[in-house]
Design a protein that fits this description.
The chain is mainly α. It has two domains: 1-191, Up-down Bundle (Growth Hormone, Chain: A); 206-391, Up-down Bundle (Growth Hormone, Chain: A). The chain has helices at 13-25, 28-33, 38-44, 49-65, 67-77, 79-98, 103-132, 137-179, 182-187, 213-229, 231-242, 247-272, 279-296, 303-332, 337-366, 370-387, 400-408. Helix 3 (38-44) crosses helix 4 and helix 8 (137-179) runs antiparallel to helix 12 (247-272). The longest helix is centred in the middle third of the chain and has 43 residues, at 137-179. The model is unreliable at 394-399 and 404-426 (pLDDT under 50). This is Monocarboxylate transporter 11-like. It is a multi-pass membrane protein. GO terms for molecular function: monocarboxylic acid transmembrane transporter activity. InterPro entries: MFS, MFS_dom, MFS_MCT_13, MFS_trans_sf, Proton-linked_MCT. Keywords: Membrane, Transmembrane, Transmembrane helix.
């Protein structure tokens, strides 16, 4: 396949956006919706909240930690077969969870096997999507990322309805069948060759990215935010019930938050491409709003206040996700964005493994969710402080992607004066 000068910014790329929509819907969308089964699992296995929280924590941590394996495999064998294999494994994992007889079985099936399948499916899809777009990348990312929010909006009430009629085992069987649609998303991923792409053998894992100051800061920040970012989707339904809200109305709170998330992802994608503000500033602002929303959840004592905070959280979290996927190619360059996506997901696994069990443990120890939300908000706000150390947008330096484009057409890179506080760059 002849190498293209620039990303096509359209064409088959719009079908890759569809694949990205499916990948978001059937990975994080499902993960965020399974929280409505939390109390069912606690009752079925006579377990504590912390023990059941480990199921989602293992799923999230495996999905993120194994993401470099997915991106490295897609670099060598192509994204299409890797993503389709991931869809099959994740479906088998959820199917096995429906037949589990102990929490250990849930840890292995819904935790490890499903997480591994999602690792093979999500990061290669989103990395491939980044390569298809340049000028309209944020819009494309926003469209793909709405899958996460729309699924999180529609699925919780449906899962609650299914659980009332089919019990949690039947609900997981239906979810397993739904996850098989990841195979369709994988089939839409057509290989794309761009000038400046490194040889395949030199790009395995690409751990040298951590030596780049911009990516290292970005990875550290995402690791911190992952410890609190998913707290509402694990505990918001149960928190609503603890306030005396009936189950379907509590599930609606999660759904409304997800709808705000989906709309915000799309609007942020449209706005970020206009460059009204530097993406790094948007990243810090939206992430800080996520942290503030988490801090105020414990003060909500009415259904209306809980709905307001859920919408605020969803809108800010969705906007952050779109901007983050748009910032990453600018930090590392388009030729390394696939592996960078996998490594970034791996760094998030640290916080993802810590956050849900810690919040569940705090709930068990204190008897309510106050400490869980406060600690989650503190982690997210600490990530905002880390993001402030990202390379300055006003330094006059070309981004990694711009440097690649200049090199591809034979122009030397312009000089890049760095301020004194940046000279410790590795």
């Amino acid at each position: 396949m002849p190498a293209l000068e620039d990303p096509p910014d359209g064409g088959w790329g719009w079908l890759v956006v569809v694949a990205g929509f499916l990948a978001n819907s059937l990975t994080f969308g499902i993960l965020r919706s399974l929280g409505v089964l939390f109390e069912d699992l606690v009752e079925a296995f006579q377990a504590t909240a912390a023990q059941v929280s480990w199921v989602m924590a293992i799923t999230l941590a495996t999905q993120q930690f194994a993401s470099p394996l997915g991106t490295a495999a897609s670099t060598h064998y192509g994204a299409r077969p890797v993503v389709m294999l991931g869809g099959l494994l994740s479906s088998l994992g959820i199917f096995g969870a429906a037949l589990s007889t102990s929490l250990f079985h849930l840890y292995l099936s819904l935790g490890f096997l499903t997480g591994l399948g999602w690792a093979l499916a999500f990061a290669p899809t989103m990395g491939t999507l980044s390569r298809y777009f340049s000028a309209r990348r944020s819009l494309a990312m926003g469209l793909a990322l709405t899958g996460n929010g729309l699924t999180s909006f529609a699925l919780p009430p449906l899962l609650r309805l299914a659980a009332d009629h089919l019990a949690w085992r039947g609900t997981l069987l239906a979810t397993s069948a739904l996850t098989l649609h990841l195979l369709l998303g994988g089939a839409l991923l057509r290989p794309l060759a761009l000038r400046g792409d490194p040889p395949k053998l030199s790009s395995v894992f690409d751990v040298g990215l951590f030596a780049q100051r911009g990516f290292g800061v970005f990875a550290l920040g995402t690791a911190l935010l992952a410890a609190g970012y998913f707290t509402p989707y694990v505990h918001l339904d149960a928190y609503g019930r603890a306030l005396g809200i009936e189950p379907y109305r509590a599930a609606f709170v999660v759904s409304l938050s997800a709808l705000a998330d989906a709309l915000a992802r799309l609007l942020a994608g449209c706005g970020a491409d206009r460059r009204l503000l530097p993406p790094v500033y948007l990243l810090v602002a939206f992430n800080s709003l996520v942290g503030v929303a988490l801090l105020f959840f414990p003060v909500s004592t009415s259904y209306a206040s809980l709905l307001f905070l859920a919408v605020l959280y969803g809108a800010s979290a969705g906007s952050f996700a779109t901007v983050a996927f748009g910032v990453l190619p600018e930090l590392v360059g388009i030729s390394r964005v696939v592996n960078a996506t996998g490594l970034c997901m791996m760094s998030m696994s640290i916080g993802g493994l810590l956050g849900p069990p810690l919040s569940g443990f705090l709930r068990d120890q204190t008897g309510d969710f106050t400490a869980s939300f406060l600690i989650g908000g503190a982690f997210v706000l600490s990530a905002s402080l880390v993001f402030l150390a990202l390379p300055s947008p006003s330094s006059g330096c070309p981004s990694s992607q711009e440097k690649e484009m200049l090199g591809a057409v034979g122009h030397p890179n312009p000089p890049c004066p760095m301020p004194a506080r940046r000279r410790l760059e590795i």
